[in-house]
Design goal:
Blueprint (H helix, E strand, L loop, with lengths): L17 H4 L21 H14 L3 H11 L8 E3 L1 H7 L2 E6 L9 H10 L3 H6 L1 E4 L3 H13 L3 E5 L5 H9 L3 E4 L4 H15 L2 E2 L6 H17 L5 E5 L4 H13 L4 E7 L4 H6 L22 H10 L2 E5 L1 H15 L9 H8 L1 H4 L3 E6 L6 H14 L3 E9 L4 H11 L3 E8 L9 E9 L3 H13 L4 E4 L7
Parallel strand pairs: 2-10, 3-4, 3-6, 4-5, 7-8, 7-10, 8-9
Antiparallel strand pairs: 1-2, 11-13, 11-14, 12-13
Bound molecules: pyridoxal-5'-phosphate.
Pyridoxal-5'-phosphate (PLP) binds next to helix 7 and helix 11.
Amino acid sequence: MDSIFAFYSPSSNRRLSPLLAHGHGRPRPPPAPRPSHRGAPSPDSRREFWHIERRVKPGLEDIQQAAARISTSLVRTPCKRSRTLSERLGATLYLKFENLQFTASFKERGALNKLLSLSEEERRRGVIAVSAGNHAQAVAYHARALGIPATIVMPRTTPNVKVENTRAFGAEIVLTGRDLESAALQADQIQSERGLVRVHPYDDPEVVCGQGSVALEILEDVPDAEILVVPIGGGGLISGCAIAAKALRPEIEVVGVQAARYDTVRAILRGGPPVRGGSTIADGIAVKAPGQIARSILPTHINDVLYVEEQMLEEAVGLLLEIEKTVAEGAGAAGVAALLGFPERFRERKVVAVVSGGNIDLLVLASILQRSLVRAGRLARLRLELEDQPGALATLAQCLAEVDANIVEVHHQRSFTVAPLRSAEVELVLQTRGLAHMNEIRDRLDQAGYTAQWLDAEGLRP
Ligand SMILES: Cc1ncc(COP(=O)(O)O)c(C=O)c1O
């Protein structure tokens, strides 16, 4: 796995010698400066060397230092047991609510730690980041608080609400390119023209250390946690968490979660079939490949990676809202989705899932909720034939009222149907109390002589 050791300096794009970048186990303090023909190295070059060392593998102490540095400017998010989800899943489940950070994701931790690591001169020059999501808001928000000019490069396809939210934090927004890759090329150019410092969303040791503070807080709150479940995009969050958690509690299991359509760990690190890609509600973890740091950490620090399908992600978002009264985005709900999809893996264990973010488009959230109501049989579609005569619809409505079925929609169709000429096809959307109630409705309709058929009933779960 040579590519793991192809490192880039975080403050420039210069490729560093693989030998320099090779791991030496625990990171060491910055080395004494070597005399050079130009005299002592500048503080910047010492820091760069330190970066290289830490890029190999940040250690527990680095993460503890980062946690101490950033804690006063962040929300100390709760990590609470979910009684209802625990009962439902047969595990003792705790949730770490990172969606309660001010910009609604853990990304603030890494971004802030990186910003605080900059020299006065770098701060004056300003920073640049490429992101269409949580990282953009995190960098913009903390850069403004620290008085650092921030440029955020976003693909032209970024939803307007995200653009405006980021702009509202005072960042200069550059909209360019069709996707993150082409936006990144433009960012490279702006970065070198203006001498800005790149704040990478995951492949930077300072960012990884900041993200690792999530695990420190989890183990403060749940010291006997047995399994930590963490979503993986570029792998910054899981790398930092795994380093911290395994150092403090070697017996803990760290389980990563990816959207099945972006199973990059399986595809890239384990030689599986190529990533399917395409649309996913977990856009925060729809990354094309794990970063270099994650590639060096995952093989030794992660017990398992689970791949969750879209339906599980949707269901997890719905359950978190319904049961925990908390808004999670798709990526943020991936941990809970893994518990739903693989209950045996977690049965009777003490599990902490990181709810990593809550920035979800309201229209997407509305559709997810509608669909989860359908899956639970609480919104159901019924098709039947009616005689085409006055009062037939009223009689049907009366029959449904007798069994407390609330009509949400009615489609009454005479022309576009294969039903006999003097009849009409009616499709109804009903609000019900679930599967048992659906059966009751069906019995009442049978009794009244209707031949009714539930649509979308396949795959319904109690
Ligand atoms: C909500 C959310 N969860 C998880 C992740 C994955 O983090 P990482 O890229 O560090 O693996 C992201 C990344 O943007 C995210 O926004």
